[in-house]
Amino acid sequence: MTPFEFTSGPSRVVFGPGILDRLPDEVTRAGGTRVLVLSGSGTAEAAGRAAALLGPLLGGHFAGAAMHTPVGVTSTALELVRSLDVDCLVSVGGGSATGLGKALAVRTGLPQLTVPTTYAGSEVTPVLGETDQNGKTTRSAPEILPRAVLYDVELTLGLPVALSVTSGVNAMAHAVEALYSPDANPATDTMAVRALTLMSRALPRIVADPGDVEARSDALTAAWLAGICLGTVRMGLHHKLCHFLGGKYGMPHAATHTVLLPQVLAFNPAATPDVLGRIAGALGVRDAAAGLHDLIAGWGGPTSLRELGLAEEAADDDLLRAAYRGTRPP
Ligand code: NAD
Hints:
This protein is α/β, with parallel strands linked by helices. It has 2 domains: 12-156, Rossmann fold (3-Layer(aba) Sandwich); 161-325, Dehydroquinate synthase-like - alpha domain (Dehydroquinate synthase-like, alpha domain, Up-down Bundle), CATH 1.20.1090.10. Helices cover 50% and strands 12% of the residues. The chain has 12 helices and 8 strands. A 6-stranded parallel sheet has the order 1-8-5-4-2-3, with helices on both faces. Strands 6-7 form a two-stranded antiparallel sheet. β2 (35-38), α2 and β3 (58-62) form a beta-alpha-beta unit. α5 packs antiparallel against α6 (186-208). Bound molecules: nicotinamide-adenine-dinucleotide (NAD).
């Protein structure tokens, strides 16, 4: 038996269709009396619903969240936090909105709640990645972890199919890297395999019918489980590469994960033979790397960095060249 350590966060999770209605109670439970709602422009409608539900608890709404949490956006929102004198933050959206909530919470000490609308998993991690003119830096601290997460399946029904696929594979990447993490343990192993199985079965149903509530529930459950993995064990090569490409070239987060994951799985099979077998078993394919590549292609997801707009010169080693071209892994 390999010794291990496992620390899970104190986040409270409420999950279910229509659970957004519980937002005022959850804000009060967290001690909030005047809330700033945070979103990107793409989720402003869902955030508007949250704002309406808050009624007298609403202090304001900032809809400027952006991918990779630029520090300039955080500064603008911080001014609003101060001028509106709010005492609680609620982010509604994907990882970009969650990231802004985390960036503000760590600067102000205010309690933050999160209503995720993608499968990014950031809502259950104590990790914050931020970008400035020098690239992307990441830090981890207990106070970055949101106080409560409201997973409302209904808010994910409108997530476009293409984003559902890439965000779903982003969640799968958290599970995959947890399985070969030096910190892997029985809890994360179990959650990771379950997440891979649930997500790989949910995505084809979502592609066929984006409004399939059961499939959306499975995908959101998988995102949560994979997010716990991301938040509790160290990630590896795949996340480092995505982080680098996102920070240096502004590559879209989830789509970059989608292209790279099969290539990273094929990179060093000798280092992870038993893990590749478990991943293949969870996905229901014969070979983990090629099988995942084929699943992604079948769901209509991106398979090359070229189609995501990366310049060819940026792909300057064997792994990145294969990802640039979208070569099917052996
Ligand atoms: P995102 O939040 O930028 O969302 C992608 C797009 O989808 C946006 O245009 C958004 O408006 C739209 N969208 C989101 N939900 C929608 C819905 N339900 N219906 C319609 N449109 C919707 O992207 P993301 O992939 O969720 O998150 C990426 C960001 O999160 C990156 O900055 C990444 O670094 C960060 N992240 C951080 C962690 C962490 O643990 N710190 C983990 C994962 C991702």
